[in-house]
Design goal:
The complex is a heterodimer of chains A (331) and B (250). Chain A is mostly helical and 331 residues long. Chain A contains 13 helices and two strands. A two-stranded antiparallel ribbon of chain A has the order 1-2. Chain B has eleven helices and no strands. The chains are: A mainly alpha (331), B mainly alpha (250).
Chain lengths: 331, 250
């Protein structure tokens, strides 16, 4: 009810040029926008979409790595992986909370994930058949995520920016941990080196696609830049990631699955071959190796947990009723 | 030849690892996000306890076996955990009730073990007792919620109790291995835990409107290496990498 009232009030002012101008000047001055501040409806909508997609990605992202928790090759790795996947659940929780400050409930957002209305990062639709994938996800997937997320620590929306500061700290720990797993494999037996190389071959291109379509084809960029929700273009972030990552791979003696990859002395950047955007579009559309599996796993956890959530609610209501009855009896 | 102290330490370690492993199977599949995180927390505590205990067991044995050698390179008959912890995770009622039954025992157990004459066991116990206090509180609260929640949750909890109760007796067993260590002030006498455990169970079951089953016939064998069908599958998962790539470093 309360959220509805807010929406009505806001619609009345939605096109108020004065409010819009004041809002934009605050954003331009690098002031943080807080939940009770006036904001354009498009800004709110964009943030809800972005923050909830990010939250869903964390939650769905628990699945490919969760696949190795019971099979991790040492107790140290088992504990570290479990703690890492748990951190991702924690990130999901802060992000759902940040989205809730914009007037949507977690239930509603989870419902959008389960019905397929909301997206999550396509990278998690790829499978993790080998232990090396635990290293590769940390090194490449978390590495790419950090490139995207560090600028979000300065995002104009306060609750999101603050959540991202904590998340980035943990992600950068995960990335180093992932690289260390890959390093151990690269310096291990021939079978371990092969495991690492095979995993890099599978994850490299999907990791590059994580930055989204090329700037030439990206829909939301200009407005999001003006609102300071986004600060760098997809292609700039992708280039930063490649420049940081390629030397790390070469240091381990690994080969990137891109015959066109070369260092341009003049620009100081690594140049990559063409990205297969048809694969990207296909996986986003639902035609990736694990799309159905991932959503079904989330749906199953949701359905299997329904009786637990109902019991918790029923118990809380009983307690409250008993407390109220005791209070009346005492009076 | 296993010395009594080695076997004793291994029993504690195996209980912690096997239960930690079962809890870790929930990660990403919990009934709600908060509980997913809580189950992972408890799993991490138990895996941490197991690591410390395995290192200590390896040192007692003195043959250079590491925590990983002990966890990854033993077959079923060499595992010393109680049967309770190797039961498959079941539904949430089963998982949380088992956690409660175990924590209600291990919390007072570690309290006493923290005064062990074996200094390493005492130190591990002193750290673990804080963790088990949380497990006991968290699982106990859930037992009450489920027991006094909906018709379905009460029925599921009752079913879980019927499944689990015959596995609780093994926690209180004492054999020759342990008797001498108890007399030497190294191990804890589970007989001393019984009244505390009974009181905790009765209190929480009372709030959960759950009838305590009669203590009839009890399952036994895990501590001697006689296991159910389930442990082998758990080990197949746990040990897959170490068995497939012998001698590699991870």
């Amino acid at each position: 009810m309360y959220a509805q009232a807010l929406n009505v009030a806001e619609k009345a002012h939605a096109d108020d040029p004065e409010l819009r101008a004041r809002f934009q000047s605050r954003v331009d001055a690098e002031e943080k926008i807080e939940p009770n501040d006036w904001m354009p409806e498009g800004y709110r909508r964009t943030l809800v979409r972005q923050i909830s997609q990010h939250a869903h990605s964390e939650i769905v992202g628990m699945l490919p790595e969760g696949n190795w928790i019971t099979r991790a090759p040492s107790l140290k790795r088992k504990a570290a992986l479990l703690a890492k996947v748990q951190d991702e659940g924690g990130h999901g929780l802060y992000l759902y909370s940040a989205a809730e400050t914009l007037g949507v409930s977690r239930e509603e957002l989870v419902g959008q994930l389960l019905t397929g209305k909301a997206k999550y990062s396509s990278i998690f639709n790829y499978p993790t058949p080998s232990w090396a994938d635990m290293g590769m996800i940390g090194w490449l997937v978390d590495g790419a995520a950090i490139m995207n997320q560090i600028p979000l620590c300065r995002c104009s929306y306060g609750p999101y920016a603050r959540a991202m500061i904590r998340i980035c700290k943990e992600e950068s720990f995960h990335q180093r941990q992932g690289y260390e797993i890959v390093m151990t494999l690269a310096r291990g037996t021939p079978a371990q080196k092969k495991m690492a190389q095979d995993s890099l071959n599978r994850w490299w291109w999907p990791a590059l696609m994580m930055f989204g379509p090329s700037d030439r084809d990206s829909q939301h960029s200009d407005q999001n830049m003006a609102w300071k929700i986004k600060r760098f273009s997809n292609d700039d972030l992708r280039q930063k990631f490649i420049d940081a990552t390629v030397p790390q791979g070469h240091f381990l003696g690994l080969t990137f699955p891109d015959p066109d990859l070369r260092f341009n002395e003049a620009t100081g950047h690594w140049e990559h071959g063409p990205i297969d955007w048809s694969e990207f579009n296909r996986v986003v559309r639902g035609e990736g190796p694990c799309n159905r599996e991932r959503l079904k796993a989330r749906q199953k956890a949701h359905d299997d947990g329904a009786w637990v959530r109902e019991a918790a609610l029923a118990h809380a209501e009983k307690r409250a009723a008993r407390k109220a009855a005791a209070k009346i009896a005492a009076e | 030849m296993e010395t009594p102290l080695f076997t004793y330490t291994l029993r504690l370690a195996d209980n912690a690892l096997v239960l930690g492993h079962r809890l870790s199977e929930w990660c990403g599949h919990g009934p709600m996000l908060e509980e997913d995180l809580a189950l992972a927390n408890m799993a991490l505590d138990l895996i941490g306890q197991a690591r410390n205990l395995y290192s200590h067991a390896g040192a007692i044995e003195g043959q250079g076996r590491s925590e990983d050698d002990l966890a990854y390179l033993r077959d079923c008959p060499d595992w010393r955990n109680i049967l309770l912890v190797e039961r498959p995770r079941g539904d949430f009622a089963f998982t949380i009730l088992r956690q409660f039954l175990y924590a209600a025992f291990m919390h007072p157990y570690f309290e006493r073990l923290s005064a062990s004459k074996d200094e390493t066991l005492a130190a591990i116990a002193a750290k673990s007792v804080k963790e088990m206090a949380y497990h006991l509180r968290h699982a106990g609260e859930w037992v009450i919620r489920l027991g006094d929640g909906t018709e379905e949750s009460a029925a599921r909890l009752k079913e879980a109790l019927e499944d689990l109760w015959p596995f609780t007796g093994e926690m209180f067993e004492v054999d020759g291995v342990e008797r001498a260590l108890i007399d030497a002030g190294i191990a804890v006498d589970p007989a001393a835990i019984r009244p505390v455990w009974d009181a905790t169970i009765d209190h929480v079951f009372g709030e959960a409107l759950l009838a305590r089953p009669r203590d009839g016939w009890m399952q036994t064998g895990g501590r001697r290496g006689e296991h159910s069908e389930h442990l082998g599958h758990l080990l197949a998962d746990l040990q897959f990498m170490q068995r497939t790539y012998p001698g590699a470093t991870w």
